[in-house]
Design brief:
Distance between the termini: 21 Å
Strand content: 25-35%
Oligomer: single chain
Number of strands: 11
Structural class: alpha+beta
Largest sheet: 7 strands, mixed
């Protein structure tokens, strides 16, 4: 079976509080785009093998896709070993949920291969034991994710639009970003209720103007400067709004016209290697 594993973007990302277990309660509006990895699953003759087109990615139990297959077997008692081949197209360590989306695709595939008949929400429940973004990636589309990401509320679809995605060449450590967050000192937050109201009204401009990611405020100054520079190129080229996705460093802009999106794509492609022209899913 072949499955697409779609990248995700954070239209909003807010950190509400630090929990007693050391994690944080989040509130995020998430959106799928058509940039995707391609997974092929087939019954294995032995213990199951995994391969990817990127040699540096783990091809064993450390990979979220393998972890998802094992989590499905434990939860349902169904399914044997599978061979998993992943064609990676989503940038790695980019704040776009590439590994989580691969895991979600494996859960959906195992559900079909075994005839288990689980609902998407039941699969998402299995996925929360694999990774925080996996439940949303199982559901996909436009959704509100809360808690650690496992509490999901489907939302009206974002009006179909063009998306320009740019990943600068520096890494960002998610644990380090969380360590720098002081929830009590967050003064600028996304207008999540306003953005949801704009989705309900089918107002793309209203959504774009309310996008915000609180992680941007805790970046190192030189990283924040580069993120802001990419956002400026997007806005200057006609983006209705621009923001960083997840813990970064990927930046994206929403466009209501293909020609302006292509202009932004062309300008950024002259500066960065990882630039993508996409649409919403």
């Amino acid at each position: 079976m072949e499955f697409n594993a779609y990248a995700k973007l954070n239209l909003t990302l807010d950190i509400l509080r630090k929990r007693e277990d050391g994690y944080h309660d989040l509130q995020m509006v998430m959106q799928s785009i058509d940039l995707c990895d391609r997974l092929t699953l087939s019954p294995a003759r032995g213990e199951g093998e995994m391969r990817t087109n990127l040699a540096y990615l783990p091809a064993d139990g450390r990979n979220l896709a393998q972890m998802a297959a094992e989590a499905f077997r434990r939860a349902t008692g169904k399914g044997g070993a599978v061979d998993i081949a992943i064609e990676k197209n989503i940038p790695v360590c980019a704040g776009m949920g590439g590994g989580s989306s691969d895991a979600a695709a494996v859960l959906r595939a195992m559900n079909e291969l075994t005839g288990a008949g689980l609902s998407l929400m039941e699969l998402a429940g299995i996925g929360q034991n694999v990774g925080s973004d996996v439940p949303y990636c199982v559901l996909g589309g436009t959704a509100l994710a809360e808690g650690r990401g496992e509490i999901l509320t489907p939302l009206p679809a974002l009006p179909r639009c063009h998306v320009v995605v740019c990943k600068p060449a520096f890494p960002i450590s998610t644990p380090q970003l969380f360590a720098r967050v002081n929830v009590r000192r967050i003064t600028c937050r996304p207008d999540t209720p306003g953005l949801i109201a704009a989705l309900e009204a089918g107002d793309l401009l209203g959504v774009a103007r309310r996008m915000y990611n609180v992680f941007e405020d805790v970046l190192e100054p030189r990283r924040r400067s580069e993120i802001d520079a990419i956002k400026s190129v997007l806005i200057d080229s006609g983006a209705l709004g621009a923001s960083m996705s997840g813990s970064g460093p990927t930046v994206f802009g929403l466009f209501d016209r293909e020609d302006t999106a292509r202009e932004a794509f062309g300008r950024l492609s002259g500066l960065y290697k990882a630039v993508y022209l996409c649409q919403t899913v």
